User: Fold this.
Amino acid sequence: MKLKNILIVVKDIEKSKQFYHDLFGLDVILDNDGNAILTEGLVLQDEKIWRTFIGRETIPKNNSCELYFEEPNIEAFIERLENLYPSIQYVNRLMTHSWGQKVVRFYDLDGNLIEVRTPM
Assistant:
């Protein structure tokens, strides 16, 4: 068995496609009526479709999972993040762990948790 994709729910798929392209360089592979597959295996699904499938409301900022990215030049990444999305909500701003790895956590436009770290 092979894990193929990770799906996150979004309110505005066009804004989310732009967000993930702007910050992480992810491009759209397939765009199919409320479902978009991006490079690196990330799938965006319109919240209305998701609600229909599960019959429940979504819970933004539920902190039960995160998307994890690594970026060697994390300071430049944060500068780009703050220039393009100045109202982004941080969980923790840039910090350095005792072992030297830098990390930042924030929510995307829909309350999905994202972590960006420098590689080990």
